[in-house]
Amino acid sequence: MKWMFIFLIHIYWLIPKKWRRHCIFKHTCSNYVYQTTKEQGFLKGIKALKQRMKQCTPYYAVYIMHDQEEWVILQDSEVIARKFTNV
Fold it and tell me: What's the CA angle centered on 54, arms 52 and 60, to 5 degrees?
């Protein structure tokens, strides 16, 4: 199953980028899922896919702290540093 899942990700990468959904993360969702699956196995890859599908939506907010550090609040309420995103 692991190799079939990795193969499907490779098929996804054949689709031109302009037709794919834009990812808000610097380490794109498909790359993240690919690395997780390759290193940790099929089940962890599926969990990584579910997690990223919940997080990578157009519904996020950027919060700027008093020290000018920027944070992104994702739809699932997780908070990450803006430097890790493409936002």
Answer: 100
